UniProtKB/TrEMBL annotation:
The lineage of its organism: Eukaryota, Metazoa, Chordata, Craniata, Vertebrata. It catalyses: H(+)(in) = H(+)(out). It comes from Ptilonorhynchus violaceus (Satin bowerbird). This is ATP synthase subunit a. Belongs to the ATPase A chain family. It is a multi-pass membrane protein.
């Protein structure tokens, strides 16, 4: 039984061919392509409004130099948002529950922000490792602590996204299994667990949206420190 609960996180395959690439590309196919007209369908207008809202929120903490990252951050936000939400549908696979994929997204972008700071303002970037006014005896320890906290940032990004989505999917499967099991023996309790399942599903929709936003927002804050 325990193995069955975690089978949903294994990468699906068909005839020995992994389907994770299809699961990653499919969300982009749901976005309507813009046309040549100024005003398109209501869905396109809603899409442009939503992307504009996300871009504004992500660019607020950044100055004009950081606006070059608008396309990357907004595209990453839309990708994570659609992937997380589609993973809540039945009989689907969520690529963002894989720690390897989340680290593959977090590490290069974090490294790019770090290298940007070291190239443009190396003294300021290195100055973050040692707070101003630090006693002399604490300088080696603080440099070690700040360096460790800096290097652990991409790991924290990947683990946070993976843990939150994995925990939510496990809870949904556990409660849904309890609901179907109790339906014949204790129908009243089964109805109660069904109500809990509906509330949990709404909560997981919110978690999927919030975690995508937090992932990209933290990257924008890391970028702010280095520009």
């Amino acid at each position: 039984m325990n193995l069955n609960f975690f089978d949903q996180f294994s990468s699906p395959s068909l005839l020995g061919i992994p389907l994770i690439l299809i699961a990653m590309v499919f969300p982009a196919l749901l976005l309507p392509s813009p046309g040549n007209r100024w005003i398109n369908s209501r869905l396109s207008t809603l899409q442009l409004w939503f992307i504009n809202l996300i871009t504004k929120q992500l660019m607020i903490p950044l100055d004009k130099k950081g606006h070059k990252w608008a396309l990357i951050l907004t595209s990453l936000m839309m990708f994570l948002l659609l992937t997380n939400l589609l993973g809540l549908l039945p009989y689907t696979f969520t690529p963002t529950t894989q720690l390897s994929m989340n680290l593959a997204l977090a590490f290069p972008l974090w490294l790019a922000t770090l290298l940007t700071g070291l190239r443009n303002q190396p003294s300021v970037s290195l100055g973050h490792l040692l707070p101003e006014g630090t006693p002399t005896l604490l300088i080696p320890a603080l440099i070690l602590i700040e360096t460790t906290s800096l290097l652990i940032r991409p790991l924290a990004l990947g683990v946070r996204l993976t843990a939150n989505l994995t925990a939510g999917h496990l809870l949904i499967q556990l409660i849904s299994t309890a609901t179907t099991t109790l339906m014949t023996t204790m129908p009243v309790v089964s109805l109660l667990t069904l109500a809990v399942l509906l509330l949990l599903t709404i909560l997981e929709v919110a978690v999927a949206m919030i975690q995508a936003y937090v992932f990209v927002l933290l990257l924008s804050l890391y970028l702010q420190e280095n520009i």
